Amino acid sequence: MRKFLLSALLLATSLVSAQILDPVTWKTDVKKLSDTEYELIATATIDMGWHLYSQDVPKGGPNPTLFSFKENDSYELLGKVAEEEGHTVMDPTFEMMIKFFSDKAEFRQKVKVLKDVKVINGEVEFMVCNDTQCLPPKYVDLNFKVNYTAPAAASTTKASEAPVKEEVVVEEAEKAVTEEVIPEETPEVIKATETEKSLDSKPSAIVKHEDTPKSDRSIWTIFILAFLSGFAALLTPCVFPMIPLTVSFFTKQSKTKAAGIRNAILYGLSIITIYVLLGTFVVWIFGPDSLNRLSTNVTFNIIFFLLLVIFAISFMGAFEITLPNSWANKVDQKSNKGGVVGIIFMALALAIVSFSCTGPIVGTLLVEAASKGGYAPVIGMFGFSLALALPFTLFAAFPGWMNSLPKSGGWLNTVKVVLGFLELALAFKFLSNADLVLQLHIFEREIFLAIWIAIFGALAFYLFGKIQLPHDSPVTHISVGRLLLGLLVLTFTIYLIPGLWGAPLKMISGFPPPLNYSESPYGVGYTKTSNLASSEIKEFPEGAHLGPHDIISFHDYEEGLAYAKKVGKPVLIDFTGHACVNCRKMEDNVWSEPEVLDILNNDVVLISLYVDDKRDLPDAPENISKLTGEKYRNIGQKWSEFQQIRYQANAQPYYVIINHNEENLVEPSAYNPDVEEYYNWLQEGVGNFKK
Asked: Is 658 helix (H, G, I), strand (E, B) or coil?
C-alpha cells in the first residue's frame, strides 16, 4: 500500500512539474517628462508565490534582471534603469543578501530624444523562482512607443517655453520571447500556484523569503515560539509568585464561583489585550511593510544587538529594568475600585510590576518578530500574552489547583539567568547580520562560533553549579532536572566546536554566518573530498567535471550518454542552473545524505545540464534552435530548449533517469526535499535498468 501511495505521489508530482510555466507578464508605458526627455516604464506582473530578482545581485547569486536597449542615434540613455525598493533578505541557500520583487515590479529608464523616433526597442532578461523551482533565464522584447517628432527650427524656442504637460502613453507589450517560443504540441502555459514550504527544512527555499506574504506555517511558528516564551516568563521571580496573590484576590472578591470564573476570564482577556495592543503599536509605528527591512538595516541590527545585550545582563542580575514606581502605584490604586475597570487595571498592574522580568522577553520577541515583517509582532504578542494569561485565569477560576504548583525558590532566578544566557547568544545574530550587510569580514563564522561556544560553555558550568551570579542561592546540590539540562547544553557546546574548522553545523543553520564567510570553509571535520567518487577512481573520464560533493558529472548530454554506455550504468539527467535556489537546496540537503550520495557516485552517470550557462556555442548545425531557427544565444538556451521539447517542462530542478535507448526508467522527479522519497525514486530507476 505504501509503495502504491509513493508511486501515485511521484506520478502526481511529475505531472504537475511537467508543464511550461510562464509566471511573469510585462507591460510597457512611456511618460513624457519634458519636450525631449521621456521615461520608459517596464512593469512586471508576477504570479503569486513567484519572485523576480533585482538588477543588482551579488556575484555568485541568482541571475539578475537585465535590461538592454538597441543602439540608435535618435536617442540617448540618461543614467541607469531605476527600480523599486523591493525586498532584501538574507537568502539561506546562496548565503548572501539578495533583493527580489513579488506580485509586481516597476523599472524606469530615462531617455533623451535627439531625432524623430516612433518606437524605442529594448529587451529584458530575467529569471524567476518560487519555493520549489526556478525557471531558466528568459528574454522578452520590450517596445516603447514614444512617437516623437522633432519641432521645426523656428518654433524650437517657443516650444521650450511652453508649460510641460505630463502625458502617459500606455502600451500592452506583447510577450514576444526571442528565446523560448512554445511549440503547438506542448501543453498550455499555466499559472503557478503558491507552494507552502518551511524555512526550517533548510529551508524550503529561498526562499522562503521572510518578506513574502506569511504562510499559515510561518504564522504558527511565530505564535508557538511566542507562546513558549510566555511560559518561560511565567517561571521568573517577578511573575510566578504573583499567581497565588492573584488567586487570593479573586477568591475573596467574588461572591459566587460563577462570578469568580467570569472575573478570571475577564482578567486573562485584559492581559492579552494589553500585550496585543503593544504589538499593534509597533506595527503602527513602523508599518507592516517596513518591518522586514529593519532586519537588513545596519543601524537597527546594531541597536537590536545592544538592546539584547542589555536585556541579557539584566537577567543575569547586574541590574533591573523597571518602569517608574509612580506608574505602578497609580495603576494599583485604580485596581482597588473593583468591577470591570478594577480587573482591567489589575492586568495592567501585572504588566508593569513584572516588567523587569517580562520586559526583556517581550523586547526580544518584538525584535525577532519585527524582522519577519507584516503583522508578526501582533501574532507574537498574542501568543506570549495567551501563555501568560492562561495560568492566572485557570488558577483564579479553579483555586484548588494551586496545591499542585511548586513552591517559589532559588530555581526561579536560575530560570531567569538561563534566559539571560540565551538572549546574549541571540544578540550576536544581529551583530552578525550587520557585518554581513557591510561585508566587513570582521565578525566571521569562526568568531561567531567561538562566542557561542563560550556562552553555552559558561551556561553549562552555571547549571552544574560551578558559576554563581549575584542573586543566586547557595548551591549545595543540583537537581536531576538541572543536571540533565546542563548535560544537554554541554552536548550542544561540544557539537559547535568542529564548526571552528569548517563543519556545516546543520542544526543551527541560519544563525551563524555562512561557510563561505569564514577563514577556513573546509577544514578539520569537513573535508570536501571525503567519501567521494573522485578519490576512488583510477582514471578521470574525459569530458567529466566534479559536481556537488565532488560527484563526477558531465555537462554535455552526448558525452555523458556515451560514457554511460561504456560503463553500463543508467543516466541521471539533472536539469539545473548555476542560479537555481532549489537546485542548491536539493544538492545541499538531499544529495549530501550518505545513501543518496552512494547511488549518485556508484550506480548512475550524472549529466548536469545548466539552463543558465551563458557561455557561447560555436557555429554548427547542431547549435541551431529547433523552435526559432536561429543560433542558440548560449549553452543554457540549448539545454533549456532540450528540456522543453523532450519533456514538456521548463522548471528546475528536474530529474530524469533514462536507459541507453534514452527511454525513461521511472517518472521524472522535480524538487523533492524528502530524502527517503528521493532515495526510493533513485532506487526504482536503477532497479528498472537492471531488469
From this structure: strand
**Residues 6+ positions from 193 with CB-CB distance below 8 Å:** 48, 49
Distance of CA 421 to the CA centre of its chain: 26
**Cis omega (within 30 of 0) for bond into 653:** yes
R_g of the chain, CA atoms, integer Å: 31
Q: Report the predicted TM-score, pTM, of the whole model to 2 decimal places.
A: 0.47
CB 442 within 8 A of CB 435: yes
Q: Does domain 537-690 have CATH number 3.40.30.10?
A: yes
3-state secondary structure of 122: strand
Cα 473 to Cα 470: distance, rounded to the nearest angstrom: 9
- Residue-by-residue DSSP string for 197-227: --GGGS-S-TT--TTSPPPHHHHHHHHHHHH
CB atoms within 10 A of CB 170: 12
Which residues neighbour 185 within 8 Å (Cβ) at sequence distance 6 or greater? none
Sequence-ordered alpha helix ranges (H) in 318-444 = 325-335, 339-353, 355-370, 376-397, 410-438
Residue type at 417 in one-letter notation: V
Q: Calculate the CA dihedral of residues 385, 390, 391, 394 and round it to 10 degrees.
A: 150
Name the one residue in this structure whose C-alpha cell is 482577556: 269
65: helix, strand or coil: coil
The string over 113-122, giving b where at least 16 C-beta atoms fall within 10 Å of a residue's C-beta and e elsewhere, is: beeebeebeb
Residues 6+ apart with CB under 8 A from 40: 28, 29, 30, 108, 109, 110, 111, 120, 122, 144
Please identify every stretch of the chain with a pLDDT value under 70, giving residue numbers as ranges: 1-19, 59-60, 90, 92-95, 152-219, 236-238, 240-242, 244-257, 282-283, 285-297, 321-340, 353-360, 363-375, 399-411, 437, 439, 509-510, 514-516, 520-539
What CATH topology corresponds to 25-171?
Immunoglobulin-like (2.60.40)
pLDDT tens for residues 40-60? 999 999 988 788 989 988 766
Closest among 548, 510, 555, 577 to 129, alpha carbons compared: 577
| Beta-strand relationship, 87-91 and 96-102 | antiparallel
Which residue type does 329 have? N
Give CA–CA dist 56/564, Å, rounded: 41
User: Which residues neighbour 35 within 8 Å (Cβ) at sequence distance 6 or greater?
Assistant: 151, 159, 160, 164
Burial class (CB in 10 A: 0-12, 13-18, 19+), 474: exposed
β partners of residue 169: 30
For residue 89, what are the β-bridge partners?
A: 98
469: left (phi over 0), alpha (psi -120 to 50) or beta: beta
Give the separation between CA 30 and CA 146, rounded to whole angstroms: 7
Q: How far is CA 139 from CA 36, 125, 183, 544, 637, in A?
A: 29, 5, 17, 30, 10
CA distance 2 to 280: 47
For residues 561 and 567, the answer to whether their CB atoms sit within 8 Å is no
- Residue 414 · residue 406 · CB < 8 Å: no
Query: What CA dihedral angle connects 618, 620, 625 and 631, to 10 degrees?
Result: 50
Q: Could you read off the pLDDT of 96-118 as tens digits, one per residue?
A: 778 889 888 999 999 999 888 89
Q: Please check whether residue 460 is in contact with residue 489, taking contact to mean a CB–CB distance below 8 angstroms.
A: yes
Domain range list for the chain: 25-171, 216-409, 420-508, 537-690
In sequence order, the β-bridge partners of residue 590 are none
